[in-house]
């Protein structure tokens, strides 16, 4: 089955989700009160995934450091509001958590989509982990997709890399684009 995957440099799709607090947010746009001009969108499997819980709680430890370099965070899953409410008791995060990611939205993001193995796991199709860093122009600067919960970016390395990218003295472009490849040919 062919599945559309977002590529580095692509315009991030206009997708709206609802936070646990009931606020409608556009993924890829930093919260106005965050002081950031980039946003990290973390797509997670949902309440049923203990690895997601662990990853989100670990990410909280980097929230302030990310804000210092201008990167806001939002996390979203296909869980319902009730499932997110139950999950919040296991989460100790200060960044927004959103719910209700639809099948169409998961497809627009290009994340891998799984069916539940049983009703005990969950009651809906869900996204496998995805991490998107959207720059101030609304373009995808960093993308990481996984087809299972065991492979995700190591957070300290990710934050260090984003710090490097955000340093204007490094002039670090979006990597992995055709434009990137074409510009490299001039150095041969």
UniProtKB/TrEMBL annotation:
InterPro entries: AhpC/TSA (IPR000866), Thioredoxin-like_sf (IPR036249), Thioredoxin_domain (IPR013766). GO terms for molecular function: antioxidant activity; oxidoreductase activity. PROSITE patterns: THIOREDOXIN_2 (PS51352). Transmembrane segments: none annotated. Pfam families: AhpC-TSA (PF00578). Residues 6-164 form the Thioredoxin domain. This is Alkyl hydroperoxide reductase/ Thiol specific antioxidant/ Mal allergen. The lineage of its organism: Bacteria, Pseudomonadati, Pseudomonadota, Gammaproteobacteria, Alteromonadales.
